[in-house]
Amino acid sequence: MMWVIGLCLLGLVCGCSDDSGVNPDTPENRIGPAGGTVHSSTGELTLTIPAGALQDDLDFTVEPDSTPDAAAGTYKIVSPVYSLGPAGTAFGVAATISLAYDETALGPAAENSVVLCASASSGLGWEVLGTTVDSAMNRAAAPITHLSDFAVMVDTVLPTTVETGGYIYSDTTWGAKDTVLVTASVYVTGEASLTIEPGARILFNLGTGLNVYGNLTAAGTEGRPILFTSAADIAGGAPAAGDWDGIRFNRAGGGTLSRSVIRYGINGVYISESSPQITHCLIEEFKQKGIYIDGPGGIVPLELSVTECLIRQRSADYADVRVGVFVYEAVDITIADCAISNCHYGIQFQGQVAIIPHFQVTGCDIREHRWYGIYALAGG
C-alpha cells in the first residue's frame, strides 16, 4: 500500500494528476500584447516584437525551410531559411527580425551587398527588406509587418570603383554598391539630375567638390547611408578637415539630402539661394561650417528647413571659424530636432540687410560650444 501511495504522490499512476490538467509553463514562443522575443532553436534567428504589435497572445512557430524558392538574378542565399508562423499574422507595430549569415559564403562579395529578404506576398520569389547589416556579428536585421519566409542573400556582382569629374549634362545615377572617386570637381548642370543610391560611397580628392545647379537626390536609408568624405578617409589614410570642398547647392539648384554622412569638407553643405531638403544627416569634422546658408539680399526670403541632423566636431579643436549652422542674409529657416555640438557657435544668424527673417529652432540639443549655442547678429 505504501508503494502505491508513493507512486500516486509522484503522479505515476493512472488517475493521479493535478487539478487543472494544464501545463503551467508558458510555451517558449508565446508572445502577447506586451511584446517579447521569438528565437529559433539555434539562436540564428530572433524576432523582436514590440508592445502593441499584437492584440492577443499568440504561439509563434519557427521552422527551417529545406526547399526554399531559389534566389533571383545574381543573388545567392547565405543563411538558413526560416518559415515563421502562424501564416498570415500581421503586426500593428513593426517587429524586427535578425538573422545570422555565413560570412564564408559571401566569397568575394562585399558585406555592403548583404540584404535580408522575405518571400514575396504573391508567393513567388523574394522581396528585399530595408536591411541593416552588423558585419562584426554577421547578422542582418530589418523591420517587418507580417510573417513570412526569411533568408539573408548577397548580390554576387562585385562593387565597382568609378572615377569621375567635370560636368554632368544628363540624368545620371551613382549606384548603391559604387565607390565613386571624384578626381575633379563635379558640376550637375541645370538640365540634369544626379541620383545617388543608398549605400554608395563618394570619395573626394583634395580640393574637389560636388556643385549642384540642377537636382541632387541623395537619399540613403537608416541601414545604408550614403557616405561623402575625403579620399583619405579609408583604411590607413589620414583625412583632415578641409580635404574637399563639400556639397554646394547653387541658385536654382535643389533636391534632397537625407540619411547621409558628410565629413572632412571645408563646409559640409553650402546652400546659396536654394532650398534643398536636408534631413537625417551626420555632418562632422568640417573646417568652417557644417551647413552654410547664404540667402538672397532682396525682399523675398529663402525658405528652408534642416531637420533631425547631427552636426558635430569629434575632436577637441575648437577653431574660431567653425560653426554648426551659419545663416547669412534673408532666410526664413526652421532648425528642428537637431543635435549640434563642439563648435565655436552652434547656430549663428548674421547679416540681415533688407528684411526681418524668421528663425525657428525647436527640439534641438545644442551643447559644448566654445562660445554661444545660438548667436544672432543683425546687420553687417
Secondary-structure map with pairings?
Layout (H helix, E strand, L loop, with lengths): L1 H8 L20 E2 L4 E4 L5 E5 L8 E2 L1 E4 L10 E3 L4 E4 L4 E11 L13 E6 L6 E3 L3 E3 L4 E8 L2 E7 L5 E8 L3 E3 L4 E10 L4 E4 L4 E4 L5 E3 L2 E5 L6 E5 L16 E3 L4 E5 L1 E4 L3 E6 L4 E3 L2 E3 L4 E6 L7 E6 L2 E3 L10 E6 L2 E6 L2 E3 L3 E6 L8 E4 L2 E3 L4 E6 L3
Give a quick set of tags describing it.
eight-stranded parallel β-sheet, disordered N terminus, 1 helix, 16-stranded parallel β-sheet, Chondroitinase Ac, Chain A, domain 3, Pectate Lyase C-like, 380 residues
Query: What is the approximate shape?
Result: globular
The major β-sheet equals:
16 strands, parallel
Strand portion, in percent?
Answer: over 45%
CATH overall fold name of the largest domain: Pectate Lyase C-like
Q: Label the structural class.
A: mainly beta
For the record, the CATH architecture of the largest domain stands as 3 Solenoid
Q: Class of the largest domain in CATH?
A: Mainly Beta
User: Which ranges are low-confidence, i.e. pLDDT below 50, for 5 or more consecutive residues?
Assistant: 1-26
CA distance, first residue to last residue? 106 Å
Radius of gyration: 27 Å
Q: Estimate nothing, just give the exact number of structural domains.
A: 2
